[in-house]
Amino acid sequence: GAVVSQHPSRVICKSGTSVKIECRSLDFQATTMFWYRQFPKQSLMLMATSNEGSKATYEQGVEKDKFLINHASLTLSTLTVTSAHPEDSSFYICSARWDSEQYFGPGTRLTVT
Amino acid sequence: EDKVVQSPLSLVVHEGDTVTLNCSYEVTNFRSLLWYKQEKKAPTFLFMLTSSGIEKKSGRLSSILDKKELSSILNITATQTGDSAIYLCAVGGGSNYKLTFGKGTLLTVNP
């Protein structure tokens, strides 16, 4: 139980394009999902907290107009990286909260060329 | 600002050794402390420690939470090469269960 999926697992896009990453809780409903970014050899940095039916809460320094988050249902949150640049290349991981625990998706490796 | 500090940042041991990883934290409205193991992909959950559950054990891994010292340790006994990974400590606080992660400890177990 408590499985979280992410799609795609890996994406390469050109600079200036937008990329959408999906995070799904497969066997539970998650009112809260979290989006993290992890650069090589660094820890996970929380980008934003996504609550179903309301606006996401962004961490300091994260541009909300660049990283659009939509939590349209209790099992799906999406992160759209708009006008991607090479410095946005990173490992993006979502997690979904169930009870008091967070369950992580497998991550999405984004490479912007 | 919430803070989680892990030490050491990296550690190299031989198979069979016992290791202790440390995590200290400063967080408002502490709810829980979690340990994760990260290999090539996303972190996998190991333990969650709370005020009502300050010790956890699973096989060769065990963890203790010291709420007075605002710290936790993760012990791994009889290490194996498969234990090589980054071990992440995260602390949850606040009403939305937001997690703050430490930088992690890179453990390398040599045969």
Task: Report on the architecture of this protein.
Helix content of chain A is 0%, strand content 55%. Chain A is mostly beta strands and 113 residues long. In chain A, strands 2, 4, 5, 6, 9, 10 and 11 form a seven-stranded mixed beta sheet that branches. A four-stranded antiparallel beta sheet of chain A has the order 1-3-8-7, with no helix packed on it. In chain A, a hairpin with a 2-residue loop joins β9 (90-98) and β10 (101-104). The mean pLDDT of chain A is 92. Chain B is mainly beta. Chain B is built from no helices and eleven strands. The relative contact order of chain B is 0.34. The model of chain B has no long low-confidence stretch (mean pLDDT 92). Classes of the chains: A mainly beta (113), B mainly beta (111). The A-B interface holds A 32, 34, 36, 42-46, 49, 51, 57, 93, 95, 97, 100-107 and B 31-32, 34, 36, 41-45, 48, 50, 88, 90, 92, 96-104.
Give the largest interface pair and sizes.
A-B, 22 and 23 residues
Helicity range of chain B: under 10%
Determine the structural class of chain A based on helices, strands and strand pairing: mainly beta
**Assembly classification:** heterodimer
Low-confidence stretches of chain B: none
The average pLDDT value of chain B, as a whole number, equals 92
What is the succession of H and E elements of chain A?
A: EEEEEEEEEEE
**Overall mean pLDDT of chain A:** 92
The H-and-E topology of chain B, N to C, reads as EEEEEEEEEEE
Largest sheet composition of chain B: 6 strands, mixed
Q: In summary, what is this structure?
A:
The complex is a heterodimer of chains A (113) and B (111). By secondary structure, chain A is mostly beta strands. Helices cover 0% and strands 55% of the residues of chain A.
Provide key terms for this protein.
heterodimer; A: 113 residues; mainly beta; 0% helix; globular; B: 111 residues; 5-stranded antiparallel beta sheet; 11 strands; 61% strand
Task: Summarize the SSE layout with pairings.
The complex is a heterodimer of chains A (about 110) and B (about 110).
Chain A: E1 4-7, E2 10-13, E3 19-25, E4 32-38, E5 45-51, E6 57-58, E7 67-73, E8 76-81, E9 90-98, E10 101-104, E11 108-112
Chain B: E1 3-7, E2 10-14, E3 19-26, E4 30-38, E5 44-49, E6 55-58, E7 61-66, E8 71-76, E9 85-93, E10 98-101, E11 105-110
Parallel strand pairs in B: 2-11
Antiparallel strand pairs in B: 1-3, 3-8, 4-5, 4-9, 6-7, 7-8, 9-10, 9-11
